[in-house]
């Protein structure tokens, strides 16, 4: 995968795509990523276009981990920044509950234990206990933890 030299994405060399490759022909959108491939390299893999007050972004492949991280950071920078850098096997998904609390679901997708740092004062939803900011959180193999912030 290649980001465009003047585009907003800075893809690492390890950015990949998998499973399929839509060849996007750009007419009125901005290409963000192209394939690094002798045949598919002529088409865009990711495009974006402003529409009204928002933006429509089309991803024409299943992004590998590094491409997905870069896209997520660009599309929703505030959503990623709360957990900062995570180990390669760990993902953190953040959403908003009906009552306005932020809910954080942290997964370790590996047989090896992992450790992350609480980015803010949290409540462990499953164990109903407080977790102060800066606390080291141990995740077992294939573990999931659910936290909330008030």
From TrEMBL:
Pfam families, alphabetized: Glyco_hydro_42M (PF08532)
Transmembrane segments: none
GO MF annotations in UniProt: beta-galactosidase activity
Top-level taxon of the source organism: Bacteria
A biological process from GO: carbohydrate metabolic process
Residues in Beta-galactosidase trimerisation domain copies: 14-76
Protein name, entry field: Beta-galactosidase trimerisation domain-containing protein
Organism the protein comes from: Streptomyces lacrimifluminis
């Amino acid at each position: 995968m290649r980001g465009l030299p003047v585009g907003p994405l800075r893809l690492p060399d390890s950015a990949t795509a998998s499973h399929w490759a839509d060849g996007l022909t750009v007419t009125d959108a901005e290409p963000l990523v192209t394939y690094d491939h002798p045949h598919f390299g002529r088409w865009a893999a990711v495009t974006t276009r402003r529409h009204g007050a928002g933006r429509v972004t089309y991803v024409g492949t299943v992004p590998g981990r590094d491409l997905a991280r870069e896209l997520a950071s660009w599309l929703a920078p505030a959503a990623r920044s709360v957990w900062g850098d995570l180990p390669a096997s760990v993902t953190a998904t953040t959403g908003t509950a009906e009552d306005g609390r932020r809910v954080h679901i942290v997964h370790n997708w590996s047989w090896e234990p992992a450790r992350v740092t609480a980015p803010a004062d949290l409540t462990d939803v499953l164990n109903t206990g407080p977790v102060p900011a800066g606390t080291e959180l141990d995740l077992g193999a294939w573990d999931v933890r659910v936290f909330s912030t008030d």
